[in-house]
Amino acid sequence: MMFAAKLLPQLFAFFGIAAVVLRGYPERRRPLAVSVGAGFAVGAAVAFFLFRNFPGSFPFELIRTVVGASFFLFWGIAVTALYRSSERALPDASGRSSRLDAVAAPVIALGAAVTAGALAACRFSGNDAPLGPVPALVLLLVIGALLAAAGFFLEAKLPEALTVSRAGTLGGVVALLLLSSSYLVRLDLFSPLSMKVMKGCHDFVHQFMESVLIPDHLFVRPQIWGYIGILFSKEVGFWGGMVIWFTPFLLVAIAVRFELLPSVGHIRQGAQRRKLLAAAIRQRRMKLIVPLLSLVLMAGAAYRSSFPDVEYWDPKPIPVAADPSGDVFIPRKGGEVDLSDGKLHKYLLKGGAREVRFFVMLTPTGKLTVDLDACAICKPDGYGQGEGSVICYYCKTLIPLETVGKPGGCNPVPVAFSEKPDGVHINGVTLVNAWSTTVQSTGAKKEGGK
């Protein structure tokens, strides 16, 4: 019952996609309904094939890439729609619009339905999935057919005055896909987008200061560094991500709002002119409904991304100490800790006035790794472990378990160690130095810009 409830966001998104696409292209209602149902089935089948033949993060990365590509494609469509709404409308030859619709309608319907089917199938890839691959696929095929039929009949009952612009149709589809993916932590897009904005701002400011002012310039006082430090905070990434997240939908709404009204100068009767203009204004207002609803859906996706309904494994760090030779020893088994269980095990080493947090875990490749509980980019808030990934608590970036132990990006900083039959041996000086060089300096920049 709980698992069925978890599947509801994906099913709701697919149902909404079917209704939006059919209303956006009402003249092709029946073939599009068939395309939507078939696309959902194909997407679910392809996803199950990927999960079966490519274990690990590859299927999730592929599906997330497709959803992300649809969002940035919509960015271009939104800019074009705003341009076309002005008096400088792009040239459009006679009949060209209908020819484009004949191609765009099935492409949007199939692409959206395939992606929605793949997103729904992702719910059956976790450890809590109650069904095997074949029963789960059959269940999704039946549900997809029923939802496509329900969307067809619901759309037919909607008021004829409720019209959707071409850009609004694509916007509604993209918003529903992003909302659906936000309920799956490994497919979420808003948190990675915010992280990219934060990192891009960080790299730009760093390069600018290095190449133009140099860090220790006499005129760069501590107060100025305090203001520069704001640019290194995660709030910059969050609000920058919000701008990128909502802007295309706002552009579509603005484009609809400023659509040119029909020319009525050639009509002599004033009542007929007013009636024609009033009908055009009502139609324009109805076209705003889907873009505005898309903004609400995108707000929901951003909220789900910022407050995911996921409990991460985050054990309390176990205090350890170095022996007189400086060696830190972590036994393979001790008490409730078993390094071969695939879980993240945290430890705390006190070196003088410093405290070093690190963890040891067995990766899916079967190798042990020792890493700092921090990365070289973000404030050292640490990591938690979820299904198939660890998450950076500062920027909410997900790191696949297969890549833990590899340097770069937001990955935990790896530390050199030696593996022996009795456990893991780490040089205490190496740990302290790694923490000092990669964490304390980064944390200082994030807090105060110094």
UniProtKB/TrEMBL annotation:
Domain named Membrane iron-sulfur containing protein FtrD-like: residues: 339-432
Assigned keywords, A-Z: Membrane, Transmembrane, Transmembrane helix
Keyword Membrane: yes
Alphabetized InterPro entries for the sequence: FtrD-like (IPR018758)
Top-level taxon: Bacteria
Pfam families hit by this protein: FtrD-like
Bilayer-spanning residue ranges: 6-25, 32-51, 63-83, 103-126, 132-154, 166-185, 242-265
Name under which the protein is recorded: DUF2318 domain-containing protein
Record organism: Geomesophilobacter sediminis
